[in-house]
Amino acid sequence: MTFLTHLECSLCGRPYDADRPQQTCSTCNRPLLARYELESARRLERERLIGNEPSLWRYRALLPVRDEAHIVSLGEGFTPLLHARRLGERLGMPYLYIKEESLNPTASFKARGLAVAVSRALELGVREMVIPSAGNAGGAAAAYAARAGLRLRVFMPRDVPAPFLAECRALGAEVTLVDGLITDCGREARRLAQEFGWFDLSTLREPYRLEGKKTMGYELAEQMGWRLPDVIIYPTGGGTGLVGMWKAFAEMAELGWIDEHCPRMVVVQSEGCAPMVRAFQAGEEFATPWENAQTVAAGLRVPAAVGDFLILRAVRESGGTAIAVSDEMLVEAQMEMGRMEGIFACPEGGATLAALKVLLSEGWIAPDERVVLFNTGSGLKYL
Ligand SMILES: *Cc1c(COP(=O)(O)O)cnc(C)c1O
Question: Which fold has domain 110-200?
Answer without folding.
Answer: Rossmann fold (3.40.50)
